[in-house]
Amino acid sequence: MELKKELLNLLKEKKLKIFVINYYPLKERREYLNKRFKDLGIQNKVEWIIQRPGDYKKEIKKFSPLKKIWESANRHMDGPKFFKLNEADINLIENHLKAYKKIIKRNLENVLILEDDVIISREFILRLKKCLDNLPDEYDIAYTDFGIGLRFTKRVSKLKFLRYNGPLTRTTASYFISKNGAKKFLNNVRPILPIDWNMRYFERILQMKVYWLRGFLTYQGSIYGGHYKTSLQARMNPTKIQKIILKIESKRFDQKLIWKVILLIYDVLFIIPYRLVRVMFKKIR
To answer: What is the mean pLDDT of the chain?
Structure first.
């Protein structure tokens, strides 16, 4: 109870607002996150950005980047040589831009943006407090999500933000953004690549102040598989296999040699074949 009170005071001090991006048909995700926010006592700090089907029809028709644009983007970061954006890619980018418009219009200083597939960990209050304690005074964007293969520490006591200028991407499922960061993105970002690569590209072009959390605030639901029903089942009532997957994936932040070996075997035997099958299936279709 004391920790919740301390967190609420910190949220007020940092003038932090939480935006959650959701696609309207995925009501189960809203139900899960609303329940978690209520349990944590922070539901009043949360605002939903809900996209309905067909919201961005004009934008989808407008953007048709040429191959040379993708090749230009690839010179600035590690991403695909050529990637055709689909409707979902453009919708997601437009939802984040909608959040940035709200930040600027309402003059918000610090906002935590969550995509609706995040899994809120049991340590969320402690982790969020640690994030806010370590949030840089001057930053454009600070990533906080679990979904990346770099093996940073997962211990709460070690969480801190590190300045990052490299070409690797961090997932957009969970991140802090400042008013200045929102302005820079809103004035420059256009759908060119899938959102994580897209943001990394513009961050480097605009020389933005980018930080990564040495650890994670949220888990990404897609670690259980791409289909939203699968990830929802894992949130609400995970099976034994899903619990094992989450435990193994969480060890990507562990520095012990034994876990590096286990993860290497896990990737070679399961993850890489799974991704290859998905690629082949897409080509066949």
So the answer is: 79
